[in-house]
């Protein structure tokens, strides 16, 4: 199962992205759902870092310009050093 993380500091956009991803998982051209789930939806990059340290395969969808000490690129770089398998969408 591919774990998906969504990181966005604009709460409206965060909800929209989550809805798009969840709908895409359920409604797709395959005869069954993707082997994928949304496990973390947050505006806090620190939560993402903690999550990727504790879990393996995942897909990260992140905003680049976060209003935080860590940018989306910082989080992506950290994840690249922690995990072997990952998909990043900035």
Structure explained in plain terms:
- The structure is a single chain.
- The chain is of the alpha/beta class and 90 residues long.
- It is 41% helix and 24% strand.
- The protein is built from three helices and four strands; from the N terminus they run E-H-E-H-E-H-E.
- The longest helix has 16 residues, at 11-26.
Short description:
Helix content is 41%, strand content 24%. It is an alpha/beta fold and 90 residues long.
User: How many strands in all?
Assistant: 4
Distance between the termini: 21 Å
The average pLDDT is 85
Which range best describes the helical content: under 10%, 10-25%, 25-40%, 40-55%, 55-70% or over 70%?
Answer: 40-55%
What is the string of SSEs from the N terminus onward?
EHEHEHE
Strand order of the largest sheet: 2-1-3-4
Strand content: 15-25%
Helix run count: 3
Layout of strands and helices, then pairs:
Elements: E1 2-7, H1 11-26, E2 36-42, H2 45-54, E3 58-62, H3 72-82, E4 86-89
Parallel strand pairs: 1-2, 1-3, 3-4
Please tag this protein with its features:
90 residues, four-stranded parallel sheet, 4 strands, globular, 24% strand, alpha/beta
